[in-house]
């Protein structure tokens, strides 16, 4: 049966690959992002039952408005985010530090909290929530701390949603240069270094994140909740 899926940041990168994966099942998919033109282009290119819901995920009123446009949601994918330090001015001083930390926490943590809260009453029993974390959660900094906080929040959320048989998990990607995350890309040496850290000797592809998200939202994953699934080619291993 067709499901309804909300993918934040669904116009580019992982979000777009996730939207495409669910649309291939015949699902109704809503994608958010701040740039309407990017969302419209994705809807046109991907085809299927995909709809644009422009909204800034860090703006409570905008998130509330977007959530109000949809009915029951079977799958919520909190993917919007990125390392906001890449676009911040290189300034020193406490105010600049405050701004940098606030931006990463808002983009990667608060945005997920807001959309989850806004859709809480609309999440179907037996549904799934998947958040996109990062291998950066193991590495510190304001971006890593925001992604680590996302994983911590997910633990409590699993208990909160358990009664309704809703699962909630984090997919934590490693190095995926094929999205807009790194802008124009990393210098060759850094690129090669990040690949050298993997066990598989390669970077990941957005489809591999879409596959992991799709699995966690599948009937085969109904006993998996409160977890972090690393999709990183072995660059960071759990045991
Ligand atoms: N690529 C990697 O190697 C990597 C590794 C680990 C984790 N991640 C995580 O994966 C997720 C997806 O990133 P990506 O690699 O696919 O990069 P991307 O192509 O830049 O995708 C990020 C998406 O999030 C949206 N977004 C960002 N801030 C937003 C906001 N405030 N409100 C609404 N939408 C917002 C962007 O659209 P607009 O700009 O139009 O708003 C964009 O479509 C992010 O959470 C990122 O931290 C990526």
Can you tell me about this structure?
The chain has 239 residues and is an alpha/beta fold. It has one domain: 3-Layer(aba) Sandwich (Rossmann fold). The protein is 41% helix and 18% strand. The protein is built from 7 helices and 7 strands. A 7-stranded parallel beta sheet has the order 3-2-1-4-5-6-7, sandwiched between helices. β2, α2 and β3 form a beta-alpha-beta unit. α3 runs parallel beside α4. The protein is globular and about 45 Å long. The site of NADP nicotinamide-adenine-dinucleotide phosphate has 30 residues, from α1, β2 and α4.
Brief write-up:
It is built from 7 helices and 7 strands, in the order βαβαβαβαβαβααβ. The protein is of the alpha/beta class and 239 residues long.
Distance between the termini: 36 Å
Rounded average pLDDT: 98
Radius of gyration (Å): 17 Å
Number of beta strands: 7
Low-confidence blocks of residues: none
Second-tier CATH architecture: 3-Layer(aba) Sandwich
Written as H for each helix and E for each strand, in order along the chain, the element string is: EHEHEHEHEHEHHE
Give the bound compounds: NADP nicotinamide-adenine-dinucleotide phosphate
**At the third CATH level, what is the topology name?**
Rossmann fold
Number of domains: 1
CATH top level assignment: Alpha Beta
Oligomer: single chain
The proportion of residues in beta strands is: 15-25%
């Amino acid at each position: 049966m067709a499901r309804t899926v909300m993918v934040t940041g669904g116009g580019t990168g992982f979000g777009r690959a996730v939207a495409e994966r669910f649309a291939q099942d015949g699902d109704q998919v809503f994608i958010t992002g701040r740039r309407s033109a990017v969302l419209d282009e994705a809807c046109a290119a991907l085809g299927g039952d995909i709809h644009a819901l422009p909204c800034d995920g860090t703006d409570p009123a905008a998130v509330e408005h977007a959530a109000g446009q949809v009915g029951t949601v079977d799958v919520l994918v909190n993917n919007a985010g990125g390392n906001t330090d890449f676009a911040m001015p290189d300034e020193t001083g406490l105010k600049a530090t405050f701004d940098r930390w606030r931006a990463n926490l808002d983009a990667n943590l608060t945005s997920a909290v807001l959309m989850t809260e806004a859709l809480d009453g609309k999440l179907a029993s037996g549904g799934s929530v998947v958040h996109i974390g990062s291998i950066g959660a193991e590495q510190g900094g304001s971006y890593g701390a925001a992604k680590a906080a996302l994983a911590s929040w997910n633990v409590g959320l699993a208990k909160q949603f358990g009664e309704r048989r809703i699962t909630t998990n984090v997919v934590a990607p490693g190095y995926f240069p094929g999205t807009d995350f790194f802008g124009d890309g990393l210098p060759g040496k850094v690129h090669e270094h990040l690949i050298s850290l993997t066990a598989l000797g390669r970077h990941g592809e957005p489809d591999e994140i879409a596959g992991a998200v799709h699995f966690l939202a599948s009937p085969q994953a109904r006993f998996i909740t409160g977890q972090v699934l690393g999709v990183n080619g072995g660059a960071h291993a759990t045991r």
